[in-house]
Design brief:
Elements: H1 3-14, H2 25-41, H3 47-56, H4 58-65, E1 72-76, H5 82-91, E2 96-101, H6 103-108, H7 110-116, E3 125-129, E4 142-148, H8 168-178, E5 179-190, H9 198-205, H10 210-219, E6 223-228, E7 253-259
Parallel strand pairs: 1-2, 1-4, 2-3, 4-5
Antiparallel strand pairs: 5-7, 6-7
Helix pairs in contact: 1-2, 1-4, 2-4, 2-5
Length: 263
């Protein structure tokens, strides 16, 4: 076993990843870890992605998610596709990735999206651009989904009207229906202090209260299945805009894994 695969295996164990895809959890974790390590090490990844790795810690996030070859996964509000590419390389040619954006996200990331998929790159990725209320996911077709620093945008209500109103309940309802029983959703986002008007906090700080996220997912029928502290930063007091240069790349972030129960 390579050192990278061993490292990811240790991470999977540390995060108590519940493996449902194989009879032997250790074998499944090794397969996932090796695929994630290979995806991260790919020489074809864009330079900007490689530079982001040190801050984003994708090996740890994807190990916590449990993504593995052959899976069908969704990158929710995928923007320019940093994680979409890693997911695509991890699930491989027998897997499938949905890169979902609503129209404002697609416009914001238009240049990055064009570069990401130029010349037929990432042929196992299906791009979907639709309003939340129009998002169509085949019932029980997805093994796992990921929100990275984007779930808070379901509550974003900018005064300039640049973001169409989204309904978090509708978003999670559609995602829940699209997940297979036992499927997981990983949510990584910037921590906001409790209290206050959610839309105002999101608009001014681009943060969200973790308790609100837990409530939203519980309301949609999910169960909290795990938590990772790999991107926790105690020095962040949660009062600054996440793009403030004094805190950018060092915000306190929660990572939750929610699971769709098996009937």
């Amino acid at each position: 076993m390579s050192m990278n695969a061993l490292r990811i295996l240790m991470l999977c164990t540390a995060f108590s990843w519940p493996v449902a895809q194989a009879a032997d959890p250790v074998d499944a974790a090794v397969a996932s870890g090796a695929a994630v390590a290979a995806a991260i090490a790919s020489p074809d990844r864009p330079k900007a992605d490689l530079e982001r790795d040190a801050v984003a810690k994708p090996a740890e996030v994807l190990a916590f998610m449990g993504v593995a070859p052959g899976m069908r996964v969704a990158d929710m509000f995928s923007a320019g596709g940093y994680y979409t590419e890693l997911l695509a390389r991890t699930v491989g040619v027998k897997g499938h990735v949905i890169a979902y954006n609503n129209p404002p996200y697609a416009r914001f990331a238009e240049k990055g999206i064009a570069q990401r998929y130029a010349d037929g790159r990432l042929g196992n990725v299906q791009q979907i651009t639709a309003e939340v209320g129009d998002l169509q996911l085949a019932p029980a077709s997805i093994d796992a989904a990921l929100f990275v620093m984007s779930y808070h945008d379901a509550y974003w209500r900018p005064e300039d009207g640049s973001w169409n109103k989204t309904n978090p309940d509708e978003l999670l309802k559609r995602l829940f229906a699209g997940l297979k029983p036992g499927g997981v959703v990983v949510v990584q986002d910037h921590v906001a202090n409790p209290g206050g008007d959610v839309a105002k906090v999101v608009d001014t700080l681009h943060r969200i209260d973790p308790v609100l996220v837990q409530r939203d997912f519980a309301k949609a029928g999910f169960v909290l299945d795990g938590e990772s502290k790999v991107l926790a930063h105690a020095a962040d007091d949660h009062t600054k805009l996440v793009f403030d240069e004094s805190i950018r790349g060092k915000t306190d972030q929660f990572i939750y894994r929610f699971r769709k129960p098996i009937p």
